[in-house]
Design brief:
There is one protein chain. The chain starts with 13 loop residues before the first helix and ends in a 5-residue tail after the last helix. With 726 residues, it is mainly alpha-helical. The chain folds into six domains: 164 residues, Rossmann fold, CATH 3.40.50.300; 66 residues, no CATH class; 113 residues, Arc Repressor Mutant, subunit A, CATH 1.10.10; 77 residues, no CATH class; 188 residues, Serine Threonine Protein Phosphatase 5, Tetratricopeptide repeat (Alpha Horseshoe), CATH 1.25.40; 62 residues, Winged helix-like DNA-binding domain superfamily/Winged helix DNA-binding domain (Arc Repressor Mutant, subunit A, Orthogonal Bundle), CATH 1.10.10.10. It is built from 41 helices and eight strands.
């Protein structure tokens, strides 16, 4: 692989050049960005597009000496009319005590009557007080006929504040120089997918994009997808992993982006890259430090490609692409054990927060299968009960047959995935495989010593007969107890044993108190139990409290909060609040469709009361939810007394006159009925239907008579109750 080439692709900057070319004479343009952002390319493109003479001066380290900058400026301006002899006294301005401001003004005075675009590149090389004073004098005394552009890696302390106030200052910073699909255009030899992938890996950093495409465009296509670090031989054909492995990217990134960073900031950025994406609290914990917020603010002041910082109260740092891959490689080389320690500490925080995706990613990168299995055993069941079954199924695919034979937790997790998915044959096969294992310490530790976890698992996962062992697990604070007891209470409620259900749910409170999703399910079921017993007022205050907690924890969209939606809808029906009932019904249906049908017992337990209640406010809604619930694979032998109730409801709904013919309405009357459900007055309805107002009134009278009502609102309500209107 060849090293990154200096002859990187040149990218059109048409829009930005056009904007620069509109800058009025007498203005100053500041172009500030780290190396590799295309500042020089932009100056060259601007000079070529400009209709006025352009002078470009690239500053070197020696121009920082007293008088050297002014001398170089005089030499650069000579071709457009400056007296060549003026450079000598100016170059000795400090030695002769000539005022720098006057010297620069004298030089530019010769050009005051001529249009000129003066482009100074790499101005960050000027650091001495003398050179900065000369540059400041140039900015302050710039003639009205000239435009001055200053390009460099950092903004210098110049006399630009006044110009900003006058509107004669334009600032172009790093984010405006990042490449996009539009700015890249048709780079020779690259497809759209290659362009997209290169932008993803580089964050739009021009130097990185050029390096990747020059060195990787000819690579052989490899398997789809890159490595977890975002660098690999992917379908786009970019050998990003090779660039990183050979240190080419690392060297280029160091020279272009990191060399000017404070060492502490750089070390922090490397730690952030190890985690990939983390907020300041996680970063502090993983680093065993307490300075993340301060270092984040320093990073904000020095924006870098492939680094994003979001949020103010709890800032999040995300490092991506080639920068992440390069910094991770550097971190592994310097202290591999520290990297592992950081990943473990961060994973622990994320798990505690129930933020399972980054926790899983961190543990996967550790390569410790035992630790990963233990993590999945702790969090997997909760993730499944949240409705994210496919996520856990995907995690399990990473383990092979040997792993299944080694870790007893894996067959159990497989059985739970299949159980809640309604695949009962597969559930039994996985549970049978458990019998070939010794009881896992991880699992046994979560139960009473005398309990057999395999038996508990079999009973809980079958969602059928819930025996003594499952009931005894209630003294444990593990998810085993929570799952088994929720199953037990739901089964009791579904078969009509309201008092048993209430007792179990009340005993569960201390165990689910900090397990928010489980507790929301527990309380929703408790509220429905109380409603079924006619004790509506007892749960209302707690329903309000739980709704507040759901919002506080950001759990409103979680499928397992469907129970609260159902409970609220039942209460709304009881209160006669049709609008609220419909609102909660709609929320419940969205979540019910997302939950796995395999948890049928639970779904019927919370949703059947809603179906029965909706009959009184909206027949189509009652029909929809009844059809959904009766379509579940309910095979529990004790089930649910609610199922016969649902079947009876379905039969009753089938007998309702749902067709227009059964109601005796003509097609014309049906059209008028639909319009009556709007807020349009009769004359407007007549216009919509191309009828006379008198004809509309006649049809309306016929509708009232056939529906047995006396007003427009009564007609609409009756039609909706009979399924004539949605």
């Amino acid at each position: 692989m060849r090293a990154p080439e200096a002859s990187r692709p040149r990218f059109p900057r048409a829009r930005l050049v056009e904007r620069l070319d509109r800058v009025r004479p007498g203005s100053v343009v500041l172009i500030t960005a780290p190396s590799g952002y295309g500042k020089t390319d932009l100056l060259l493109a601007w000079s070529r597009a400009s209709q006025v003479p352009a002078i470009r001066l690239t500053l070197r380290p020696h121009h920082d000496a007293p008088g050297a900058f002014v001398a170089a400026l005089a030499d650069a301006l000579a071709p457009v009319g400056a007296e060549p002899t003026i450079g000598q006294p100016l170059s000795q301005s400090h030695a002769s005590a000539v005022d720098a401001s006057a010297a620069v003004a004298g030089l530019l005075d010769q050009l005051a009557r001529r249009r000129l675009l003066l482009l100074l590149d790499d101005v960050h090389r000027l650091t001495s007080p003398e050179a900065l004073a000369d540059l400041d004098a140039l900015v302050a005394g710039l003639p009205r006929s000239c435009v001055l552009a200053l390009a460099g890696r950092r903004r210098l302390p110049l006399a630009t504040a006044k110009r900003a106030m006058e509107g004669s200052l334009l600032v172009v910073e790093a984010d405006q120089l990042l490449l996009t699909v539009d700015t890249v255009g048709a780079v020779a030899g690259l497809s759209r997918s290659q362009v997209d992938r290169a932008l993803e890996l580089t964050g739009g950093w021009p130097a990185g994009f050029g390096m990747l495409t020059v060195n990787g465009a000819d690579a052989q296509h490899g398997p789809d997808g890159a490595s977890p670090d975002g660098a690999g031989l992917d379908a786009a054909g970019f050998d990003a992993a090779g660039l990183v492995a050979e240190g080419l990217v690392e060297a280029a990134i160091h020279e272009a982006l990191l060399v000017d960073l404070d060492p502490l900031v750089r070390a922090f950025l490397r730690d952030a890259a190890v985690l990939g994406s983390a907020d300041v609290e996680v970063l502090d914990h993983a680093r065993q430090a307490n300075d993340a917020r301060k270092l984040v603010e320093q990073l904000r002041a020095q924006p870098l490609p492939m680094v994003s910082i979001t949020g103010r109260d709890l800032p999040m740092v995300r490092v991506t692409g080639l920068l992440r891959a390069s910094l991770r490689r550097e971190a592994e080389r310097e202290d591999r054990q520290r990297v592992r320690d950081m990943l473990k500490l961060a994973a622990a925080v994320w798990e505690m927060r129930q933020d399972v995706l980054p926790a899983h990613d961190a543990l996967t990168r550790l390569g410790d299968k035992a630790a990963l299995v233990a993590f999945l055993t702790r969090v997997g069941p909760f993730v499944i009960l949240e409705g994210r079954i496919a996520l856990v199924a995907g995690w399990l695919k990473a383990f092979g047959g040997e792993d299944v034979n080694t870790f007893s937790e894996l067959p159990f997790l497989h059985s739970m995935v299949e159980g809640v998915s309604g695949n009962f044959d597969l559930t039994q096969r996985w549970l049978k495989l458990l019998d070939n294992h010794q009881v896992s310490d991880i699992i046994q530790a979560q139960l009473k010593p005398e309990l057999n976890p395999n038996t508990v698992a079999r009973q809980a996962l079958n969602f059928t007969t819930v025996g003594d062992e499952v009931e005894q697990a209630s003294t444990s604070t593990s998810w085993w107890a929570i799952v088994s007891q929720l199953t037990l209470s739901t089964a009791a409620f579904s078969r009509g044993d309201v008092e048993m259900a209430r007792g179990i749910l009340q005993l569960l409170e201390p165990f689910t108190r900090d397990v928010h999703l489980a507790d929301s399910w527990r309380f929703a079921l408790l509220a429905l139990v109380q409603a079924r017993a006619g004790r509506h007022d007892q749960a209302r205050a707690q329903l309000v409290r739980w709704q507040t907690l759901i919002d506080e924890y950001g759990l409103r969209a979680q499928p397992t909060t469907v129970g609260l939606d159902c409970a609220w809808a039942v209460y709304a029906v009881h209160d006669g609040d049709r609008e609220a009932a419909m609102r909660h019904y709609a929320d419940a249906m969205v979540k019910l469709r997302r939950l796995a049908p395999g948890i049928a017992l639970h779904l019927i337990g919370v949703a059947a009361p809603l179906a029965l209640a909706m009959e009184f406010v909206h027949i189509p809604a009652a029909r929809e939810i009844t059809t959904l619930l009766l379509g579940l694979p309910v095979t529990a032998p004790e089930a649910p007394a609610l199922v016969p109730e649902l079947q009876e409801l379905a039969a009753r709904l089938d007998r309702v006159d749902l067709t227009l013919d059964a109601a005796g309405l003509s097609p014309a009357e049906a059209k008028v009925l639909a319009q009556l459900a709007t807020h349009l007055p009769v004359p407007k309805i007549a216009e919509e239907l191309f009828l006379s107002p008198a004809t509309v009134r006649t049809h309306a009278s016929n509708i009232y008579r056939k529906l047995g009502v006396h007003s427009r609102s009564e007609a609409v309500d009756a039609a909706r109750a009979r399924g004539l209107l949605s």
